[in-house]
Structure formats: C-alpha cells, structure tokens
Design a protein that fits this description.
Blueprint lengths: L4 E8 L7 H13 L6 E3 L17 E2 L3 H13 L2 E9 L5 E8 L5 E5 L20 E5 L2 E7 L18 E5 L7 H15 L2 E5 L2 E3 L4 E3 L3 E3 L5 E4 L6 E8 H10 L8
Amino acid sequence: MAENNLNITALQLNPVWNDAQHNRSEAEAMMRHSEKTDLFILPEMFTTGFIPHPEDSCEAEDGDTLAWMKRMATMTDAAITGSVAIKTKQGDYRNRMYFVKPDGTSTFYDKHHLFTYAGEDQHYTPGKAPVIVSWRGVRIMLQVCYDLRFPCFSRNNSQTYDLLIYVASWPESRRHVWDILLRARAIENQCYVAGVNRIGDDPSCHYNGGTTIISPYGKAVATAADDTAESITAPLDLNRLRAFREKFPVLRDAD
C-alpha cells in the first residue's frame, strides 16, 4: 500500500451453480493474474451462487472456503472478503461474509437483512449488527446484497468508516436499483463504496454484473464490463477523503 492509499480489487465472477471447488479455482486464477492489491473482494455466495435452501449445499463455518481464503490471503499478502453459505456449530445457517487477513486472522459479518422475496428468511438466521474492520489504516464496513436497500443500517456516524463494501447476487432485472443505491450510499456516507456483483445464471435469475468502485463524490473510479468475468482495481486516496470531509462536513452535521 502506498502511503495513505489502499488498493482494492473487485472480482466479478460467474459462479457455476453449487460447485465450490470449481468456483474457488476460478477465483484463484483471477487473483493470480490481478495486479498487486491490498484487498480482494468476492461476490455474495461466490462458491455456490445464491442458494435460498442451504441444507444440502452449505459448508461448516470453519470449512474449505475459509481455509482457502486464509491460504490465498497469505500467498497474495492481501486481505480477502466475500460471503459463503455456512452452517454454524449451533446448527443454524448464515449468509456469512468473511474478512481474512494475511496473518490468518479472520472476522465475519452475518447478513442482517434477509431477502424475504426469495425465502432467505425461512432458512437463514440474520446477523444482529453491522461489522467494521480495520485494514492497513482503512476502516471498512461489511454488508451483503439486500442490506443496500436499508440506509439507516449503514449510516456513517461520526466518520466511523472509510469504505463501505456490498457483496451481492443482484439480478439484472433490478440492476438500475443497484446502480443508483450504490452511488447514494457513497454520497450520503461520504465514503468510498465497492459494490461487487456476479454475472451469469442460476436456476432463478440472470446476473449481468455492475461491479464498481465509487468515490465519496458518487463517481465511479473503476467499473467492470457487463456480462464479463474480470477484476477491477482502484486506489482509495485517504488524504483526499479526509480533506473532503473536513472541507464539507456532512457527517458532522447529520442528525
């Protein structure tokens, strides 16, 4: 990481339905060919596609994908984040977004707003609170897909975070909503936003991407091509972010 910059890389993947080994291999190949970065971001349920019924497809919370994320984080000297369908030791199911660092330590956020339209709430247990992690001087809030529609949940009170991440399986039929709300979250929270979506098809939907990294001004600084599996990388300029917040104190003036 250059001083006061954090390079982040978003991976727009085309997961094969319920084939975790294949999907991890595809993600690994893309990561190996990406430029040097501090953080890799993978989509929601990147190992399986979005599975509303996890009983036969989920992993243990300390399963193969978490082990793979730890190995890749060490190999690339970068943090890795993305969500996985898991079964906890207590026996319930979570849409869990892991954040893994190169030293092998990990944090997780369990998706709070479950997508009732697809019956996610009938099979998964929601997380209770937002999660903010710190990585190489940047404070990062973790969010998953449907959370994007609930701005109060991600409100940036007192400049508590610098980067807001949404990993998603957001279908093409509602793509215009995704594009608009990502920019709104960046503007209202005066932060960088990374929205990382998948492409391809599952048994229910078609996904055409829209993966993008947005500045605190609401402008895209990097965007993946639609319907294309690719990685995009952009630097987060923390000096510019701090200067903007100081000059235009939206967060200090908030209710």
